[in-house]
Design goal:
single chain; 3 helices; globular; 5-stranded mixed sheet
């Protein structure tokens, strides 16, 4: 299930022990697109993969950027966060 990113969602993830989000970007037709994304889906993780090639684009859960996105939802591309699918 994907939810809109909000400060409350970020707080909930922090309380559950998540440390990072993996950033995935998609076009209007739902194909991956990091150049001109229509929306982002953030995937919370408690730790990053050890293999640098598998980390992809990520941001710490405590990031000021994530909080800015959460506080001002209508000033940027739509940002969703994947909820309830990670341990």
């Amino acid at each position: 299930m994907n939810n809109e990113l909000t400060p409350e969602v970020l707080d909930e993830l922090k309380k559950k022990g998540f440390k990072y989000v993996i950033v995935n970007a998609y076009a209007h037709d739902n194909r991956p697109d990091y150049m001109e994304p229509h929306y982002f889906v953030l995937e919370p993780v408690k730790q990053l993969p050890d293999d640098v090639n598998k980390k992809g684009i990520y941001e710490p859960i405590e990031s000021p950027l994530l909080m800015e996105w959460a506080i001002h939802p209508h000033e940027r591309t739509r940002i969703l966060i994947r909820m309830g699918q990670n341990p």
